[in-house]
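Please, structure for the following, as tokens.
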Amino acid sequence: MTLQSIPDFHTADALPSAALDIPVHRAKDLTHGGSLAQIVLDGKVYALRITRAGKLILTK
């Protein structure tokens, strides 16, 4: 999936063409429609939370 393939992603035109090759993941997909997901990096677990205001918080 690229930035251009996401509906309503209006800033894709403002990004350099190299940025279009960056993987894109929808937060709601990562949380399976909920508000919390766990992400593991180098054996450490991080929590990704979607707030009621629609902001993302990543904590260790």
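The chain has a mean pLDDT of 83. The beta strands are 36-41, 44-50, 56-59.
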